From TrEMBL, chain A:
<dbReference type="InterPro" id="IPR003593">
    <property type="entry name" value="AAA+_ATPase"/>
</dbReference>
<dbReference type="InterPro" id="IPR003439">
    <property type="entry name" value="ABC_transporter-like_ATP-bd"/>
</dbReference>
<feature type="domain" description="ABC transporter">
    <location>
        <begin position="2"/>
        <end position="238"/>
    </location>
</feature>
<dbReference type="GO" id="GO:0016887">
    <property type="term" value="F:ATP hydrolysis activity"/>
</dbReference>
<dbReference type="InterPro" id="IPR027417">
    <property type="entry name" value="P-loop_NTPase"/>
</dbReference>
<keyword id="KW-0547">Nucleotide-binding</keyword>
<dbReference type="Pfam" id="PF00005">
    <property type="entry name" value="ABC_tran"/>
</dbReference>
<keyword id="KW-0067">ATP-binding</keyword>
<dbReference type="InterPro" id="IPR010230">
    <property type="entry name" value="FeS-cluster_ATPase_SufC"/>
</dbReference>
From TrEMBL, chain B:
<protein>
    <submittedName>
        <fullName>SufD family Fe-S cluster assembly protein</fullName>
    </submittedName>
</protein>
<comment type="similarity">
    <text>Belongs to the iron-sulfur cluster assembly SufBD family.</text>
</comment>
<dbReference type="Pfam" id="PF01458">
    <property type="entry name" value="SUFBD_core"/>
</dbReference>
<dbReference type="InterPro" id="IPR000825">
    <property type="entry name" value="SUF_FeS_clus_asmbl_SufBD_core"/>
</dbReference>
<feature type="domain" description="SUF system FeS cluster assembly SufBD core">
    <location>
        <begin position="118"/>
        <end position="343"/>
    </location>
</feature>
<dbReference type="InterPro" id="IPR055346">
    <property type="entry name" value="Fe-S_cluster_assembly_SufBD"/>
</dbReference>
<dbReference type="GO" id="GO:0016226">
    <property type="term" value="P:iron-sulfur cluster assembly"/>
</dbReference>
<dbReference type="InterPro" id="IPR037284">
    <property type="entry name" value="SUF_FeS_clus_asmbl_SufBD_sf"/>
</dbReference>
Amino acid sequence: MLDISDLHVEVDGIEKLHDINLHIGQGETHILMGPNGSGKSTLLKAVMGFGGYKITSGSIVFKGKEIIGMPIHERAHLGIGMMFQHPPTISGLKLGKLLAATSHLGSDAIEALAQSVNMEKFLTRDTNVGFSGGEIKRSEVLQLKVQQPDFLMLDEPESGVDLENMNLMGKEIAGLLEKDVHIVNRRKSGLIITHTGYILDYLEADQGHVLIDGRIRCHGNPREILRAVKDKGYGECLRCQQM
Amino acid sequence: MPTDVGDIEQISEKDRERLALTGLEVGMQNRCGSFFQIDQDVIQTTCGAEGVEMLPIKAALEKYDWVKDYYWNAVSKDKDKYTQYLAKQENPQGLVVIAREGVKVEMPLQACLFLRDEPVQHVHNIFIAQEGSEINIISGCASSWQKEHGAHIGVTEIYVGKGAKVTSTMIHNWNPGISVFPRSATVVEEDGTFLSNYVCMQPVRQINMYPTARLIGKNAVARFSSIVVATPGSTLDLGSRTILAAENTSTELVTRAITTGGTIISRGHILGEKDNTRGHIECKGLILKDGIIHAIPEIEGTLTGTELSHEAAVGKIARNEIEYLMARGLSEEEATATIIRGFLDVKISGLPAVLQTQIDAAIDKAESGF
């Protein structure tokens, strides 16, 4: 579904990602770990196509199409969706209006989806304005449920979320990734940035990657990587010469 | 019930469309009274609401001796050259609305002031809401589509009695060569509420106004909301002022300003001079194309018991907001329009749905031009 090859990305004239190679097949979920500032969010934003993330070389092929140079909304139409870690607040734009503007769903369908993530009272509130950590995540999940992307990029879905919300979030994300569908028929793929690995309590991931200083240092079983990082920290990854 | 707007036949189809955008309902489905003045001719005054009277100003001054106490009272004749010009007129025109004690009418009255053939239109309006009454007035001011130059000078004096509530919504639809000088003032008595809404999103040469509300009775409230767009060549010098002249009074002045190349000066002034008074000024400006938005909020307190604040922000649409919506599938243009629509969405509590619909229609019409 997604093939990233030899990707180099610059932000403000400084190269932040070096020679990234990543292949995510249909139905697969991958976990991306790494210390703060290692470039994880940069990778997601470069794939989404945000301004300020300049691709100096390499390629990003999604569903067989090169998407470098494609406007953000065309990538969204192609099936890429993103859960933002720090979404902007949009003063005056009601969440319900945003959902109506970005979909063909009627108000009843939107209301029902909002209820499924306890967000029905927020439809008449300005988007993300004054939302708590958990509310922001639920708002993001709601937007993705409306959008139904084939490939989900989730930027730290656990951060700022209490236990009760984490339970809801975990189940909803598993649903978005069609974890309830048999692996043979599963169409949805995902790339999840996580520091804690809590999300793995709710869904199985197929592969894990560790990104340090803009380079992928390790590919492997996500639970083993998580355990290794918990036990020995990222310093061990730097010393590891496996790759 | 009132009849249709009289002599509407003499107005061209194109002008009727322009007037409709200022809130004029020819069929009067959602209006309980109507006043229509073309240049200096009053062609219609009709009111079907019991306990509410609409009269041309001359008729009102002749019919009720006491109306003269309200004439040039809230606004001083000598305020400036425009009020002096109006005071000199031997044949004043304009509308007087009188809402009798305790009468509450939710359906709006409409006042339409249409500049068509004369170089200058002048009007003097007086709205009197007696104790416990409630009225909504929608004033639509427009010029004919073929009118190249001209001026509109208007004085409006509003008196909100004890426990009364007046909602005044003014929608302007002028031409690039028209200059407009409204001079308005409102006096609000104890427990009274005054809501003023102003919308101007079409080209005009200049508009200059600074309406003032004086809250003279305890617990009185005033709220001014303005939604304005300055197109290239337009200069909008707008402000609103509230004087908190009694205990427990409060006010809010809210402005959303957009320039697509014109100039907006957004003034605001709150004077807190009594205990337990509160006031807030909020001005948000979007510069879509190079132009000027100059916010000048002033808050002035004279004793410890007043709490006044202001916030003003001027800038362009944040890139990350546009990209956020693009990531949900909107094109850059769609994302921008959606954000602008939200920016202008100033829902005013207590505003009747029909007035909100009118404001939304004016926004929708202007938006297609962004």
